[in-house]
Protein: Chorismate synthase
Organism: Paracoccus aestuarii
Amino acid sequence: MSYNTFGREFRFTTWGESHGPALGATVDGVPPGVPLTKDYIQRFMDRRRPGTSKHTTQRREPDQVRILSGVFEGVTTGTSIQLMIENTDQRSKDYGDIATSFRPGHADITYHLKYGVRDYRGGGRSSARETAARVAAGAVAQAVLGALVPDLKITGYMVQMGAMHLDRARLDLSAVDDNPFFLPDADAVQAWSDYLDGIRKDQNSVGAAIEVCVQGCPAGLGAPVYAKLDTDLAAAMMSINAVKAVEIGEGMASAALTGVDNADEIRMGPDGPEFLSNHAGGILGGISTGQDIVVRFAIKPTSSITTPRRSINARGEEIDVITKGRHDPCVGIRAVPVAEAMAACVILDHLLMDRAQTGGVRGQIG
Amino acid sequence: MSYNTFGREFRFTTWGESHGPALGATVDGVPPGVPLTKDYIQRFMDRRRPGTSKHTTQRREPDQVRILSGVFEGVTTGTSIQLMIENTDQRSKDYGDIATSFRPGHADITYHLKYGVRDYRGGGRSSARETAARVAAGAVAQAVLGALVPDLKITGYMVQMGAMHLDRARLDLSAVDDNPFFLPDADAVQAWSDYLDGIRKDQNSVGAAIEVCVQGCPAGLGAPVYAKLDTDLAAAMMSINAVKAVEIGEGMASAALTGVDNADEIRMGPDGPEFLSNHAGGILGGISTGQDIVVRFAIKPTSSITTPRRSINARGEEIDVITKGRHDPCVGIRAVPVAEAMAACVILDHLLMDRAQTGGVRGQIG
Amino acid sequence: MSYNTFGREFRFTTWGESHGPALGATVDGVPPGVPLTKDYIQRFMDRRRPGTSKHTTQRREPDQVRILSGVFEGVTTGTSIQLMIENTDQRSKDYGDIATSFRPGHADITYHLKYGVRDYRGGGRSSARETAARVAAGAVAQAVLGALVPDLKITGYMVQMGAMHLDRARLDLSAVDDNPFFLPDADAVQAWSDYLDGIRKDQNSVGAAIEVCVQGCPAGLGAPVYAKLDTDLAAAMMSINAVKAVEIGEGMASAALTGVDNADEIRMGPDGPEFLSNHAGGILGGISTGQDIVVRFAIKPTSSITTPRRSINARGEEIDVITKGRHDPCVGIRAVPVAEAMAACVILDHLLMDRAQTGGVRGQIG
Amino acid sequence: MSYNTFGREFRFTTWGESHGPALGATVDGVPPGVPLTKDYIQRFMDRRRPGTSKHTTQRREPDQVRILSGVFEGVTTGTSIQLMIENTDQRSKDYGDIATSFRPGHADITYHLKYGVRDYRGGGRSSARETAARVAAGAVAQAVLGALVPDLKITGYMVQMGAMHLDRARLDLSAVDDNPFFLPDADAVQAWSDYLDGIRKDQNSVGAAIEVCVQGCPAGLGAPVYAKLDTDLAAAMMSINAVKAVEIGEGMASAALTGVDNADEIRMGPDGPEFLSNHAGGILGGISTGQDIVVRFAIKPTSSITTPRRSINARGEEIDVITKGRHDPCVGIRAVPVAEAMAACVILDHLLMDRAQTGGVRGQIG
């Protein structure tokens, strides 16, 4: 069994290779009657698009999305939506030397072992270029969420890049869109920029940590015990290329806490329960509490670097690998809009799942 | 949509509440012809069973499993297997006072909000008692893995409990089964025991971190891009009660690494590729490399504590909650066999998925 | 991959063998807050129960259902429901001689070929005894439908048994429950009874055709193009033991019709569209029209007969097979409540699917 | 939940509307290393293509397939395959008058009721044009089957068209590809042609029955009890536009048979078991026997006819509907390659499912 599909009610299947003619997403389960245009989707694509700053790959892809089905006269019809993005800047000759050699830390060797055959150009199917299709699907999810839960807002931002850490006291979500790092601290941008310049000049790359905050998510989403909301968010983030860890709320730090400290105490506010803290990251027992949902993940450094690393090739010869081509020195940066897209898909999926089972009816308090 | 099923090829659906008459797992997709007995499963159950040391809940459940279907004359038949565990020590009166009050940090409030109605006795469906059914299903997975991949071995162990940390230099997997903490360091057991005694005497509880190591896993398992092996392991661990984070290999520490440091370089060994390090935790591009698979997760402290915490009840009144009943001061301990079970289910699931798609054919090196 | 699960939103997984200790259904996706009792389910079980007339197997099974989870204080909680039926009258010695011989027309040989091992007692997993679990699951579906669509009514009845045909002019659904054939024509019961007596005395068995009519089904159910309502009904009926054909509306007779004759013309009635005929059986383009849904299926004669038939055994020896044991001369009779149960599950599943996608919003006419 | 996906291991999701820019299939689960070219797929497309004889719609679509992903250097890579067919001859102005009126017997009204909004041009998503995508997906399945089970052969043919019936005594599968009716009787072609000319001149249309025979299918395919091979074949055929019934082997005629007559007796042949008849249509207990698999289905007459029929429009006004545009007088004809495609997908899906669970191991006889 192969598995290029994500989601249960709101589902998308991605297809396409880094240097094939096109890539895209087939989206199913979309409610009918939701306004959706190419321009709306494009705004999300442009946030992830390569080549927009010196800190990302210099591959120039316009990433223009075409809607081939499922939308009629500007409105979703409830049938499957095909979103296609044509590849235009495939400089495949750069990749000739990796046809048979395996980059350390890259999927080259595991794809070779598993499938025997692979499209090695630009990493083929294992390339992070696949995430363009996720962003397109996520834009559809955002359009539907906008119609169903207008107050819901999803914001991703970097909290760490190698040795650079976000100062939590300075967190300002309004700054995120004004710098190439999706950094919620305008004053720190220059330092991060200098740091990454240094990494790139060293022919190196660096890891990152990204956080996604979902504001305005209704309580009651999550389907225990194997489609808990946090379970699905963890799977969504871990499925993004190069991600090695996912945290909800306190995350790994929970291991050090005591029950007294970890308890998010509750009082009654004017509109219902109010939590005095959010160690839980907005999810208890796999179900949303109505607080902000906080997900964080770590992404490893790009494995394609120009510093030579020891490896082997498909003939079993020991070689040194130097990866030419155009690569992001920190793939974490462009993962931010991807993570927002995945969060949107998970939240919408659960909203529809809940609509199916409970019809949105809720237990009363008070 | 509700979702009490885990897995794709090897699937199990759990059912049952903490204080209902019984709980269990319906297991589907099991290959035929595999020896399986009640006694074999029972050995796994006994590792998770409550009441075996002073450090776990004093509820006394024999956790005797009955095989009601799918096994004939000691061998699996390929049809669905029902595993039932009867509850015997439900002291439900302990829970009368939580029928309408919500423990801070617990699923009480979210189940109430989502479903309107809930079996509050002992946490009902949200209780970690559900994990007994996972261990039973995991034992079936272990039996099948034993038949298909005899060299594969799955070992879980604690690496942190509150302020106590495993000294990695002393890691000794052979020590794990000889102490109530599944601690891979015999000499540290007394200190951990004293520490937890202190926590309990303080009417408190504490978090933990657990690691699972899969040795002998074949290369080539994992179905990119939405059923990557690490994606499914992350979902499996995050679905366990109280888990707040999952890491693969370097995990969150990846964010601090550079590409030069993170590269797991490769040389040729007598039997094929050999990796000189394992930052990746045995998975690249979502597919196993053949190295040890290393998964780690954090589990928050038990929310049911006897120290009073501020909360509300279903009538919207502000109250103080003190949870009586019998609770683990560190739920992380008994999560160890649960995590092993989940890992076994994921590995087997992927083994069967791979068998379907590739037929187990592998790309050659050399 | 094995597959003992039916449904998407409302799902049940059945387990158990004919002569094992018990069998049952694990039901998931049930909306919370629906009244459900053992007695309610039992009424459906009793309609399918063996040994209630001379025309069905003389195996005496009380078919008492136990609800082991998912219901609290008489109301569904939204968690998985386990329904267990213990087997009490397994006279397994009757089956010793079929341990290695294959009954012509029976699943004995295909289970042997596929799995290598099988529980041969009473047909094991291939026995129609599995349908008891379907009826239990169907009762849960009926309870939920009763809460969500009170006017919906599902009625199954026999329309053919060998040479006996229902006279459509005499169809009277109110007669169905008053005779052992579920025959909607009270006056024909004696003739059918005499006919089946003759079949049994001839050491023979006979096929049947059953029709299920769903009255009061809302328009708009069905998820094109691969979960059309008729697609799912066809799969549901074909999955019942011994079924060899499924028809919707005109069914096979459609092949002989012209477009002029087949058109179900439409006029406006006081409450909306009214169809002047129902060749379509209440489904167009895979979506319900609001008319009666009419499904019909044929069930082959019981293959276990006492007239000797030529066959082989597992050693490859040519033998004559005479099946002792207690068998229904017409398995079609007891398939009636099973078909009603499957129809209820399909309709509920689609109601929840539709609730998820469209939220039950409908296009307006007029 | 919407559902535009078919299959479990070998899955395809179709997308596209009759008069949109393109349509296609996203195919997942394809084994790697299988030779696959555009030309290979095109041969299957050409059999279904409209406008090839006077008996099918005069819409001229070249139905050229593009492979956009999942194939590299002529070989499948195991990643998702995108097959796109651009629409070129959309004469949408023909359809302006059906934007708000409902053709009797057509999905117009149910799509309107369910979704509120629909692409009415040429029937939009409900058009049989969707089946072009199925044929493309089926061609991929055929390629894989050709690699895995070289002796397997799937042949569809018409057995009835209105008043015309195939004379079974004259059945000759070698004649099927030499006439526009896929008729396995060369001598009857002229009479069928004259008959259909008459239907068309009468401004009418007519139903049909099609049979698909799978030769060389291995024994052991089928996953009881809810993914029986016949269950999945029934769903596959019923999902095709306008299909109203599906039969396996004897089909509806089973209702009239006795157990003595229906038994397919078994003898030992030189290569194993040999069945003396095939009432079962090659499937027992939902698992293939190794005999020919025989599936038959009825397809209703085209609902778009130029004879006026009474209906209503979206404003609730009573109208007469006359459907202009270009329509097949017998949609059954072009359903033949579609049914072959669906059969190929089901057989391959089950081959992979079986490979996952049993590894293809078989019980021995003799």
